[in-house]
Amino acid sequence: MFSPFVHIPSPAFLRPIRNVMAVVPLAFGAFGFWRHHAGAALDGPPASPVIGTVAYVFAAAMLGVLFLFRRLRASRPVAERPVYSLIGYAQAEAAALFGAIVLFLSGDPGPWLVGIVVLFASWILMPVDPESV
What we know:
Layout: H1 11-38, H2 50-74, H3 81-106, H4 110-125
């Protein structure tokens, strides 16, 4: 239930948050890409190839959850919609960060790129403006 005592972020407040949430997976992925191509190996056993598959499945699941939250967001009052947008951004960021971890461990950029696509898709699926559905 919506509480009037909870601070609902405005679109002007959400835009910089959304941009900062994109910087972290981009920077971590860029570092993983650089580390892999610079030849700096991690000490320990190589990453399992299963982790890449798990990252793809996780990114697809987060995209499905974004579509679910988009429908849920549309059914809520206008005042509550920015909260659902912020939750959607966080879910998409999780997919991008997991892909960046896979890139860092295995050198495979595929899961990271798919996570970044999910992250930017969240910007379209979960608009900052509460009036748009």
